[in-house]
Amino acid sequence: MTSTDALNSREQLPFPIQTEIPTASDWCQRWQQRTPSWRHVSEGGFDARRYTVEPLPEEEAKAFVLQHHYSASYPSAKERFGLYLVAGGERRLCGVAVFGVPVSEAVLTKPLPDLVPYVESLECSRFVLLDECPANSESWFLARTFEALLTRGVRGVVSFADPVPRRSDSGALIAVGHVGTIYQASNAAYCGRATARTLKLLPDGTVFNSRAAQKIRRQEQGHEYAAAQHIRLGAPVPRAGADPALWLRDALLAVGARNVRHAGPHRYVFRLGRKRREREGIRLGIDRRPYPKCPDPDPARP
């Protein structure tokens, strides 16, 4: 692609103002059919004798996440656990935790530089509890998954909390924003923001990520699926021989995509060990900071 072509392929999408939700909260998020609800920590009611945590097969974990998590997507997973209600002879899956492989090693090696990524360190990429789960069940569930991960040689977990709500063009709430309440309650190390970036939001409120855009521009494996996402929303089918970068620019405009300035999600790090000395012996590559108690200022509009 020439420099002129590259310039012409840049889309000019609108930048609507987007605010963040407060980071400090006593409310714990739940999900049911991708619809959020909340439990206040003061409710209590959790009885560990009624629940068990077990490894979960890939297919079952994926089906649960796709059904209930707001993203309606499933990550690359290495370890999966289910929270089961087992009271009164009943056995019902009511929560899923997925620990997987982020898109870049740096997601793990930057905060946990001495651990082998994807082996000794993983990302907590999905954590979903149904709205029937009482308050405080998430902390117990998370602790049990960490115990299981430790037996598998995992010494560190990185997780992110995205405080930016997202709505579709019709006004439907797609993501309410995640403030990291359970991570703070579980004594995670807060290591500041991840990289600030610009998100491309499609009319249905989903994020069109940069990796998918790269697949289209370079015609890499999976570009057909990424392009089909736009075609379903009204973009024209690419003509034979058309420049894929120019098609993507026009497709984003055609479907009414918009840019959102994002200051980066909040990053939390868990160091795993049986004793406090073991946990604190794992070096953090990013200084630990106080937990955030209010939203950052809105990013400046271009």
Descriptors for this entry?
302 residues; alpha+beta; seven-stranded mixed beta sheet; three-stranded antiparallel beta sheet; 14 strands; disordered N terminus; disordered C terminus
The helix/strand order is: HEEEHEEHEHEEEHEEEHHHEEH
The major beta sheet can be summarized as: 7 strands, mixed
Strand % is: 25-35%
The mean pLDDT is 84
State the helix count. 9
How many strand units?
14
Give the overall shape, derived from the CA principal axes: globular
Gap between N and C termini: 26 Å
Cα radius of gyration in angstroms? 21 Å
Question: Can you tell me the residue ranges where pLDDT is under 50 for at least 5 consecutive residues?
Answer: 1-9, 297-302
User: Structural class given helices, strands, pairing?
Assistant: alpha+beta
**Share in helix:** 25-40%
**Spatial order of strands in the largest sheet:** 3-4-5-6-7-14-10
